[in-house]
Specification:
nine-stranded mixed beta sheet; six-stranded parallel beta sheet; NADP binding; G6P_DH_AS; alpha/beta; G6P_DH_NAD-bd; carbohydrate metabolism; Glucose-6-phosphate 1-dehydrogenase; Rossmann fold; Dihydrodipicolinate Reductase, domain 2; binds 6-O-phosphono-beta-D-glucopyranose
């Protein structure tokens, strides 16, 4: 893997991660595996401590065993070294219990290190207790960092930030009482994915695309994020949240922003964030009539019997929205965004579908022009494809679609850091470029949709697990004279 340029800068910077919610799904699936990978690839600071915390009681050994089961380490020596830096402290950040133990341990670590230590607080807890967590972190002065060097603690917060515009604002007002801008890292892990970052390089590093990246050439954009899995152990979180707020408001809006934004002046945090924000602000909000016409929601069969899900739940596990951006470049181009759980395809992709303008000399050789499209695939493998039209070999003139693809796997040998690995490193460096600066703008688009959905409009459709979602989703796009394009690359996935 290409190392960060200034890695030496942080190597000698003693650092402590304080992870609240250390036994939760996110910590087990993403945080500990990523921290261990960074540790084994020698990227973490030499003096690193991880203070893991949750309400349960565990000894350090018991907790290390829990982590071991999910990390599944192959290198035993590295694992032993890793866990010698891992400690467990039981606390309740929402009830202000035992946070003093964490403060005291931090002071002790600093004493032992004989220097200031960079403190990074990671909130891998339920978003419903964020506000109390901010207050209690503040009360215990965990936000202050190491005072001797005027070093400030950093805080990493997972999405969703709030559950609507008003609550996001309110939450933010509490957060900023205790933390300054440079201390806050609102994470959206999609921004840490390699292909997602590559969208900008693709658009602005290859000048051939810019002249056609607009409504004159592009007919529609399809953003798909579907998963085979259901809600698994996250029934209670998911049932409160639903697909629209779980992934559309954040991950998928960020994808839309990268595909649609204007070029930033530079890749600095401010310029990059401003351009993303500018495009999200220009998404047209919908009135109830438009919501009924331009959105669709579904629930997979059997969802209501999932663990910790309300048996009468109306929560959507499938969401589809058609959005328009109100600016010159995108006027009239629909952005179809769909997401679903327990769907046949386990795929994340963006398709830029060009207008169907076959040249007249070929008029008689195809029933219908075959539109070109670009597929940016993020999952299951990463790559970019271009659908072209080619003449089929032979005496007759017959045109057929063919694919040209760039696959990360075959083009680069480097290990691709997982999104969390990348973003955890950025937090250590204090680089906010790939973090969310804005609070609430995307809620302004989502809130009217949620409100109309709550009034029963459009109805909640059910769908079979392992399908592509409600069949009404096909009709939805067909009414516009379009169809869902296969969201996969062909060559990269073989
Ligand atoms: C999370 C959502 O943010 O992203 C989950 O809460 C979803 O519902 C997950 O499964 C998907 O992330 P990835 O990186 O595995 O595609």
């Amino acid at each position: 893997m290409a190392l960060p340029k200034n890695i030496e800068k942080i190597k000698n910077l003693p650092t402590v991660f304080i992870i609240f919610g250390a036994t939760g799904d996110l910590s087990r699936k993403k945080l500990f595996p990523s921290l261990f990978e960074l540790f084994t690839t020698n990227l973490l600071p030499e003096k690193i401590k991880i203070l893991a915390s949750s309400r349960s009681q565990y000894s350090n050994e018991e907790f290390a065993q829990i982590v071991k089961e999910t990390v599944n380490p192959k290198d035993v020596t590295a694992w032993e070294k890793f866990i010698s830096n891992l400690e467990f402290i039981s606390s309740d950040v929402s009830e202000n219990k035992n946070l003093d133990l964490i403060s005291n341990r931090l002071l002790q670590i600093e004493k032992e290190a004989k220097t200031c230590v960079q403190r990074i607080i990671y909130l891998a807890i339920s978003p419903s207790i964020y506000q109390k967590a901010f207050e209690n972190i503040g009360k215990n002065k965990l936000n202050l960092g190491c005072r001797t060097h005027n070093n400030k603690a950093r805080i990493v917060i997972e999405k969703p930030f709030g559950h609507n515009f008003a609550s996001a604002q309110e939450l933010n007002s509490v957060l900023i009482k205790y933390f300054e801008k440079e201390q806050i890292f609102r994470i959206d892990h999609f921004l840490g994915k390699e292909t997602v970052q590559n969208i900008l390089a693709f658009r602005f590093g290859n000048e051939i695309f810019e002249p056609i990246w607009n409504n004159q050439y592009i007919d529609n954009i399809q953003i798909t994020f579907t998963e085979n899995i259901g809600v698994e152990k996250r029934g209670s979180f998911y049932d409160e949240t639903g697909g629209l707020r779980d992934v559309v408001q954040n991950h998928l809006f960020q994808l839309l922003a990268l595909v649609a934004m204007e070029a930033p002046k530079s890749l600095t945090h401010e310029h990059f964030r401003d351009k993303r924000l500018e495009i999200i602000k220009s998404i047209k909000t919908m009135n109830p009539k438009e919501v009924a016409k331009c959105t669709l929601r579904g629930q997979y069969e059997g969802y209501q019997s999932e663990e910790n899900v309300n048996p009468n739940s109306n929560t959507e596990t499938f969401a589809l929205v058609k959005l328009f951006i109100e600016n010159k470049r995108w006027h009239g181009v629909p952005f179809y965004i769909r997401t679903g759980k327990k769907i046949m395809g386990n795929v994340t992709s963006i398709i830029i579908s060009f207008k169907e303008k076959g040249h007249e000399i070929y008029e008689n050789f195809w029933a219908k022009p075959l539109p070109n499209h670009i597929t940016i695939q993020i999952k299951p493998t990463e790559g970019i494809g271009l659908r072209l039209v080619a003449k089929k070999p032979g005496f007759e003139t017959v045109l057929e679609p063919v694919d040209m693809e760039f696959c990360y796997r075959t083009s680069f040998e480097n290990h691709q850091p997982d999104a969390y690995e990348r973003l955890l490193m950025d937090v250590i460096f204090g680089d906010q470029t790939l973090f969310i600066g804005e609070v609430g703008e995307s809620w302004k688009i989502i809130d009217p949709i949620v409100k109309t959905w709550q009034s029963g409009n459009p109805p909640l459709f059910t769908y079979k697990t392992g399908s592509w979602g409600p069949k009404e989703a096909d009709k939805f796009i067909e009414q516009d004279g379009r169809k869902w394009l296969a969201p996969y690359l062909t060559i990269c996935n073989i």
